[in-house]
Amino acid sequence: MKYYIVIPAHNEEAFLADTLNSVLRQTLQPQRMVVVNDNSTDGTEGIIDEFMTRNPVIYKLNTTSSTAHMPGSKVINAFNKGFEALDDDFSFIVKLDADVILPDKYFEKIAYVFKGNPKVGIAGGFIYEMDKHGGWSLNHPMDKNHVRGAFKAYSKNCFEAIGGLKPAMGWDTVDELLAQYHDFEIFTDDSLKVKHLRPTGNNYNKRAKLLQGKAMYGMRYGFLITLIASLKMAWKQQKRKAFIDNMYGYLRAKKDQEPFLVSENEGKFIRDLRWNNIRKRLF
Questions:
Q1: Distance (Å, rounded) from C-alpha 165 to C-alpha 120?
Q2: Burial per residue of 69-88, b for 16 or more beta-carbon CB atoms within 10 angstroms, e otherwise
Q3: Is residue 87 located within the same domain as residue 133?
Q4: Which of 50, 54, 78, 132 could be cross-linked to 8 through a Cys-Cys bond (beta carbons 3.0 to 4.6 Å apart)?
Q5: What is the 3-state secondary structure (H, E, C) of 160-215?
Q6: Which of 196, 225, 252 is the last residue of a domain?
């Protein structure tokens, strides 16, 4: 199967070479890989240039955006610019972070999944991060059927059906909800162990703490589901402040009448899906 990769990269000098090398070791190679140099002020661009001389599938796109490292809008705006530089002759498209190391057969297995089951719209493995003992431990605080935003692969049909990726916090949740709205399945493979070189959120701007609640508002969760989801998140993170930040972000977005990320019909589907999942856990 033919696939393309887009890698948004902002000041990734410490990790980018490892990521690109792991892609170039794949048993199934991409037909095109766009690395979007998003306003980097370190040696990121030089690394891209060096790899471009080694492999013709690698393409560099320079873009300028905010210097603030915020989750959601910055990375997806960069991804979307990279995607626009590609044609539509692909079977699946990959959004890949610039700080991960993939197992060598990663995309061979992803292609096998998409080819074997056309109902699968989004596929991926699991993140492992280095622990204090120097070993690689699973870091997947979400449900097992969730693919982390660091390495999401979308079938072409699914990507088109959901209208691409939303440049907002929560993009890697709303994409899966919309995929299910359009009757696609999410597939995760626990044998695909991806090494994440930088712990999630370590570089995020302090203003990002309110964006999760804003995203829940944008996905039309409603107050009660947001309350439950925020309690669950705070409990998993063992951070009471996470609950307060989420609810404040939600209420502030509601007061400011921020734009929704989904339509009314999509929102109703999302709420019904969330309530069904809550009932399954309770009963």
A1: 17
A2: ebbbbbbbbbbbbbbeebee
A3: yes
A4: 78
A5: HHCCCCCCCCCHHHHHHHHHHHCCCEEEEEEEEEEEECCCCCCCCCHHHHHHHHHH
A6: 196
Closest by alpha carbon to 125, among 181, 182, 192?
Answer: 192
Q: Tens digits of per-residue pLDDT, 135-173?
A: 898 887 677 889 999 999 999 999 999 999 999 888 999
A 10 A CB-CB count for 170 gives 23
Q: How far is the first Cα of the chain from the last one, in angstroms, to the nearest whole number?
A: 42
Identity of residue 195: K
C-beta separation of 4 from 93 below 8 A = yes
Cα angle at 32 between 26 and 34, to 5 degrees?
Answer: 105
Number of domains in the chain: 2
Name the residue among 126, 123, 107, 189 with its Cα closest to residue 158.
Answer: 123
Q: In the block, which residue shows the tokens 């292609």?
A: 111
Tell me whether residue 202 is in a domain: no
| Model confidence pLDDT, tens digit, residues 20-29 | 999 999 999 9
Distance CA 1, CA 246 (A): 41
Tokens found for residue 104: 């060598």
Give the CATH number, domain containing residue 12. 3.90.550.10
Query: Is residue 237 located within the same domain as residue 140?
Result: no
Sign, CA dihedral 171-176-180-182, equals positive
